[in-house]
Amino acid sequence: MRPLSRRKFLCGVGGAALTLPFMDSLALAGTRQAIAKRMAYFYVPIGVVRRGFFPGEQDDTIPEGNLGDVMQSLGKQNPNFYAKELTSLTPTLKPLESIKSKITLITGMDRTFQQGTDVHAQCACCFLSSAKPYTVQGTAWPLNRTLDHIVADQIGTQTPFPTLEFSCNNHRDNKESIYFDNISWFGTGHLAPSIRDPRQMYRRLFSTQQTRRNRDVTDLVLEDARSLKRKLGQADQHKFGEYFESIRAIEKQMDRLEMMRSELNKVSFDEPTEAYMPRGDYIRLMGDLMVVALQTGLTNVATFMVGPERWDTPYMFDGLFDKPRSHHQMSHNQTNTIDELLKIDEFHMQQYAYLLNQMDQIQEADGTTLLDNTLFTYGSGLGDGSTHQYNDLPIIVGGGGRRIKSGLHINMPEGTPLANLWLTQANLMGLETDEFADSSGTINAILA
Q: Domain tally for the chain?
């Protein structure tokens, strides 16, 4: 059988700009595409409850006040460097149990804070910042072109989208500035706007050149795909079917959420309608879209923001509370709300674990998984939401395959810049550079 050109197929499916996973049957004779390196970030706002997240802190006293970067105020010194096997998981990390061999917990790293703004203001926008403190003139934020765009200049030149920015903040009340609600920036003052609506992201990824009126994108593709399927081998037919089933599932989920929103709009609520949308469904739907985009080569670089900083608008956290709650307001009363905050931290970790497992189930052409070829990092710009400390941040690196060491807890010496990890990841993505922002070196303990 003569191999079918994958590009020719993609250009001919009813005008739909849709990408497929790698299939042997679609490969040109004698050729093999190199497996792409990918990078993605899962950002959680407001920090975490330290006693639930960090190993060895379960019995610590809940600190009070705004500690900033004063580690001694916690009543203990940060231990020196060590790297050991990640064995038992803390309560917040428990959702990662099934995938812990492919993650590494990194503690002890600090985010640089530049005096001049509220602590929350620099959490998100400066999380992936590429600026040293006080070097960018005319701005209170040490913010320049963020890491995702710098890396995309290297690994995103051949993809339809150099980067994709996902956000799960669907509220329309603009209480805070854009600096509280975005982690991706083209440069100082130049925001890379995120997409918050699943339908809008779907259309961006799977748009058609012709106006869609009566049929959705997968209808168009499946109609033209009937003849293709007969030319696929049995294994590829199965992969083909799984892929389109996942797209169909995304569409059905979007329809369900849109119907729910339509019904809620008919009811009078004290909170915005969006507060009652199930958070888990919404986050996982946006996450599924991100995974498909990485899987199919629509992009190699993505940022995923679970929620905004210091946003008091409430959310309905699935199965946790009987009414919408404000994560930010709860964080300022940790002594009385610690059980509820621990539930929110675990809830966010469940969403991260879900996406890790989704990636690990997608097989690449060489037998590895999508997760093996993706650095998928969980993190927050605060080490503790109630005290606003911006040191000893909660960071987890998932995936990376044989390029990194996994299943570890690496504790860095006190004062290690978060930029050291970003420099390490930039090098792993193929960038030949010796520094990133205020980095002082790479994290060699994570390198295989």
A: 1
